């Protein structure tokens, strides 16, 4: 289970457990400016009873190229409708490919049958490594490159959120009892972990809760006026 501590991955964890899977969690400290998500991942894993939670340390700041790993301002907007369709500067080059490579290695050691991840291609993101064709291609590659697959035990990539809206993700999570107050999604939180309310991730998250008639239980800065 790739667990970022955000809304999507926390929902996927609940979905996998609901299906009866024994879950092991993998998170990454990769030099991200929103490192408060790691504390959230720890909280979510603990609340879900996941005792095997690995946090891998890598440093994508050596490459930069993203507002999450370099000294580049995180874009802010007043409304979710302002978000465009271009690939945003919050895209971290090859991040999912790097993360999944680690996940494949960990899965082999665990003799796990599946890797679960919370990518989504329907809501705005513009991220090329969240598309179904990318997931399918990586799964094929993983099963060409691993001992277990060569021996007849292929590994599957499970992406239950890939073609549903963020609002539907929240709806399913609430039905499964996910405590979203434990999660964090903001790309530019303050030093206390309070969300900005205006980055792409905040706006999409806020709209998802609004469409479910719920208030987002995550903390926001007093100065934030989420749309």
Query: What's the SSE pattern?
Result: HEHEHEHHEHH
Which regions have little confidence, pLDDT < 50, spanning 5+ residues?
none
**In the CATH hierarchy, what is the class?**
Alpha Beta
Radius of gyration: 17 Å
How many domains is the backbone divided into? Answer: 1
Q: Give the CATH topology.
A: Rossmann fold
- The count of DSSP E runs of length 2 or more, i.e. the number of strands, is 4
How far apart are the termini?
Answer: 32 Å
Number of helices: 7
Structural class: mainly alpha
Q: In order across it, which strands form the biggest sheet?
A: 1-2
Mean pLDDT: 93
CATH superfamily: HUPs
The largest sheet, given as strand count, sense and whether it forms a barrel, is: 2 strands, parallel
Portion in beta strands: 5-15%
Give the CA-based shape.
globular
CATH architecture: 3-Layer(aba) Sandwich
Binned, the helix content reads 25-40%
């Amino acid at each position: 289970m790739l667990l970022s501590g955000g809304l999507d991955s926390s929902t996927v964890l609940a979905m996998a457990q609901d299906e009866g899977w024994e879950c092991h969690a993998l998170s990454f400290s990769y030099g991200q400016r929103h490192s408060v998500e790691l504390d959230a991942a720890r909280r979510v894993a603990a609340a879900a009873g996941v005792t095997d939670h690995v946090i891998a340390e890598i440093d994508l700041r050596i490459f930069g190229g993203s507002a999450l790993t370099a000294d580049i301002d995180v874009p802010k907007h007043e409304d979710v409708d302002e978000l465009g369709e271009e690939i945003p500067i919050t895209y971290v080059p090859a991040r999912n490919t790097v993360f999944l490579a680690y996940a494949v290695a960990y899965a082999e050691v665990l003799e796990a049958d599946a890797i679960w991840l919370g990518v989504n291609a329907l809501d705005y993101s513009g991220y090329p490594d969240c598309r179904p064709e990318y997931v399918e291609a990586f799964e094929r590659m993983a099963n060409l490159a691993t001992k277990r697959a060569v021996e007849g035990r292929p590994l599957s990539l499970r992406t239950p959120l890939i073609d549903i809206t963020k609002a539907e993700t929240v709806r399913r999570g609430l039905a499964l009892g996910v405590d979203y107050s434990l999660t964090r999604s903001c790309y530019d939180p303050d030093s206390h972990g309070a969300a900005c309310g205006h980055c792409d991730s905040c706006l999409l998250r806020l709209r998802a809760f609004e469409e479910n008639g719920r208030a987002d239980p995550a903390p926001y800065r007093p100065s934030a006026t989420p749309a």
